[in-house]
Amino acid sequence: MAWRFALCAGGLSYLLLVGNGGAENADFDPRANPPPNPDLVQRGAFVFLDPRLSPPADRACATCHPGGGSDGKLYRAGEPVAPGTPGARRTPSLRGAGESSPYFWDGSAEGLRGAVERMLRIEMRGASPPGYDVDALEAYVRSLPRFDRGRVRPNGTPTEPVRLSARRGLDVFRSSGCVDCHPPPAYLDRRSHDVGTGGRYDTPTLRGVGEMKTLGHDGRWKSLAEAVDAMLISAGVSLSPEQRQQLLDYLALL
Predict the structure, then answer these.
(1) Which domain holds residue 114?
(2) Most buried of 83, 136, 173, 179, CB within 10 angstroms?
(3) Contacting residues for 16 by C-beta, under 8 A, at least 6 apart
């Protein structure tokens, strides 16, 4: 009964949120991303929270993606590792996954179905559910709305009330080139880039970046300010201390 209680405590709000199939998104295109079957989404929510899915019966999808988000930890081949471990990868959020292709830090999965199957094989330690449960998992993950504080409009403009520093931070975000790789409303460009971290990696969304425990594909940055400084150096952009703070204040809204 514990896993059913977990659904009530942690997943019910998501069932309510996905009832309209994501139509609240300003850029939602029903032709490209049709609303999933609500019955399939509901089943997927149960499967997502059930640790019996993994062969050891000790890990659910929600273990690493609580509420569809991220646990902020680092893994290699499905096992937790310390920051800085070669080959370590930070758990990405699944919020807004339906609009976030390609998948994984190396962009190796073009479609969400392939990403789900890979996660079952590796992260879920060889889980092999029946096909209809894989369909349900894909539908549930696709239905998760992107993280949204309600502090910015679809075009990235802050909503009032907002501090002047954060409002000016949008101008810095645009003028410094951040918007080129992180365009709103999803704040990602669905491409990979080499930003001086040892290879080309898929652009992560900036949605919820202010709440992330670690940043970068391998968790190398321990704060948003540290990550921003690294990105500015990589891009060859110089900001005044005031502009840097304005940019951080804007990112905290996302």
Answers:
(1) 2-143
(2) 136
(3) none
